[in-house]
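Lipoprotein, pasting as requested.
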Amino acid sequence: MKKNFRILLALSSVVCLVSCGGLTNPQIPQSVSIATDAQFKANMGTASYDLSEKFGSDAILKKMQDALGSQVGIYDYNKGDDVLTYMIRYPIYEVPIDIQSYLQNLNLDEILKSSDIGLNFTQEVSIPEVTKTGSQTVKIDVASKIKESVSENFSTSYTIAVPEGLPPIPGMEQNTSISSILSAAGAEKITVDSPAQIIEYETGSAICIDISRIDYNALSVDYKFSLSAAIYAKDDTSKTKALSSANVDARDGGTLLLPLDVTGGIPGDFFIAVDGTVEGSHPADTSYAHAYSMKVSLTPETTPTVITGIEKSSADLGIESYTIKDMSVSLAELEGLFKNAEVGEGYLALSAELPAGWKNLKATAKININGAGLENLEIADVTPPLKFIDKKLDLRAKKIDLSLGKEITVTGSVGFEILGATIDLRSGDLEIGYEASITKLNSVVIDLNSDKYSVIKEKLNYSLPTDGSTGSVKLPSEMLNYVKSIGFGELAADGKHYKHKEDGTLSTEETDVSEGFGIKARFVNTLPLQSEINLTLSSAVFNLTGANAIAISIPGNTGDTYKEETWKAWPSVDFSALDKNVDHYVDMSLTAAFENDELKLKDVVMGTSYKIGFELESMLYDFDSVVLNTSDLAYSGEQSLEGFDLNTMLGGMGIAENDIKKLGIPSLPVYFYAQTPADDGSALGNILGKIGISGDVSISYDTTTTSAEGIETTETKTVNLLEDANGNVKPIHTVKAVKWPASGSTIDASKCTFTKDGNYSFSFTDANAGGLAQIISSFPSNLKFTYSIGLTNNGGASEITVYSSMIPKVGVTEGSVTTTESATSLKIDMAAILPLSIEIGSDISLDIMELTDSEWNTTNAQKDLLNRDDASTYQEYVDYIDSLESFTMSYRMNVEEFISGIELGLSITDEASGLSKNVSVIGSGQKEMVIKGEEIKSILTTYPFHPSVKLTLPANTIKIKRSAFIKSDDAAETPKIGVNVGLKIKMDGDTPITVWGGKK
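Structure tokens follow.
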């Protein structure tokens, strides 16, 4: 069945995955019938893997370059054989002549531009707006005062004596009126005087007449007593404008209500007329007489709403002035932005409009402001006033000092005169509004000690460290030892500084104007400065002190785009007075002339952001001349060769550090070049061609050995590079300067003169046959190049002047090599030829899975090689697995195309499934690997299947082939490591099985 074939193919795929991880062009038979004890064979195809990403020439070169640093040159060195080889060039020692390039190598630019210790900065300052608006509600207590004034009229209580009936009056049918009784008690007419002409009241307002019986006589059944009342204007003698109450039965006491909430109000002055009737059958019997108390008052709900024509003053009614409280303008957001300032545009105003229906009210206000340096400033009236209250203080030219406070407070009071006024309390209370605004400052004093400006103070008062700490720039000993002085041009009559010609005469050509020593920078400054920021760039080492210092000015209001500027000087630098026995560092300071750490601005607009920034672009080192000291003094020093070891050079090949210690290099030719400019008839050659180098040159290093007792012993060894095999010290002879190509280039040994006798012959090499290879293979520590070197001028003057006009420019192409540095230095370079012919002291292993998947042992530690999501039981395969005796993988690998001279071993292990296989992967002929049926079952039922595949390199000498990674002109592509795979399945002899296949 087709299902059976798919099962068998799946099982065979496991073998393929274990073997090579992927095949191309697999061949599947059209149909196969397998009898008992039969074998199935098929060519499963080929697989390949491009190793150039790990072992390629470019890959190894880049890893070495990254490890050794940019000062080291690394080249692909083709010496004509099939061994991958590199040349590694170390610059060891240099006496500067092209001072410009030498000063550039100090990297002052990069240090001064660095984010952590550099002087570049950008400071943005946002000046907030100062605006404040608000209001306070003023309650003028007129209503209660009017009510109190009216109530004062009702302070009297009336006592009324009422009999049970009145004697008849002749001619009248019945006598019931008690007018005479009320009159006798003074209660018939109650006069009310109010402090206003007319008063309107809120609904529910009323005069209450309360009648209480105060006697204890019995009340006859037929006894009746009622009262009524009416309000009349004070001058209304005809009583035509009555506001009446209903009759109230007052027999046992009662209450009359006179409503006040009438349209149009009631007169301010009025009287209350009280009347009543009495009936009874005992008019003359005093035992039936009764006594009543009558009290007049305003009900609690009585509230005046409109008061017209107030007839009393505020003082008479006890209305007090309103005190301004909690009115202030905060300047807290300005704290730290400036110390003090003069206001250019600003004001503080108070105003109020009368509510609707209010008339003839007068106000008298006395308002002052205090705080932030503003003391007792009165807010004056606007003339003529446009509002009921209209006061304004112009803050122009007023001085604000934030050290004296962060708040402007408004204090004072407002008095109101209500005599003759009309107040409609239905319109609400009086609102006093206030408004403050400062939009511009004429002048501002900034405190640079404030956190908001500390960056400006720090960066514009900047100094390079000179104590050897991070950022310190050490003057090279070669410069101190051999350079006496440096000139940057000579001042001519036209005020310009010119350079000298080759013959020593001063040029006057425009093209020979010296740029001098200085800086090119960009700056932006939108701060409206009162005057420029004046800076001084100084350096004692470069003789930029006092009058020689570089003056820098940064104006204000330069716009929001950066401006470019160059500041420079033409110092005469003299190193002769410096002590050559101690370290010296470049001192460079940028100092701002800030008086009292203050910065003054003008015309500052509130609500605006300002910016100031400074960015160094480059240093200027346009020197004119250098005076060299060639006296026979010897100067000692050392150059670290850190990184020149096998860990660095071979670490990029995927070999563990412990295994690298098992390796050795049988050959590491090393060449040293003591170079001087050629005596070629040029002005420079005539001066420098006869200079020689003398002294001692050695390599020193430490080796550590461990005794049987585990005690480590470190020994320092030294190899004198000037001694020959017999111990004789050879002189240092100089050669024409080597024009090294750019790092990463390919050097063809057949065309290269670097390592041959002739113009570029080496000056000296290592002293014994083993050479530096033995030293490197011993894994030394503290490897360094030491020297004690002096210059000789072969009898000439001890001081030589070299002009920049003598020095050739870089970038010149000669043949196939383009120079990347000026060939004008006196220097020593070391070049080592490293062929990847490696001695393996004992077996080492390469982790193949790690090479193919760099995260196989870390992030992907749980990755399944079969790309499954979970474990598989493969129950349907069990019968067929049980019917198989074994799978046999036949293969032939082309590893010998990459590595020659060694028999490799391959181990495949997986702890979870128990798989463990060891096979050979190199040599002639077909190889086989047998995997038992039970092993396949274990693989299929284990999750994840995450094997370790290790390639073992036994003790031997191997050579990495150049042809494996360097594509030839006629090659279609870079060769890849490959495998040809065949599959053979052997049945157990018991279970017949028929398989149908078919090519898809």
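Note for the archive: DSSP finds 17 helices and 64 strands in the chain.
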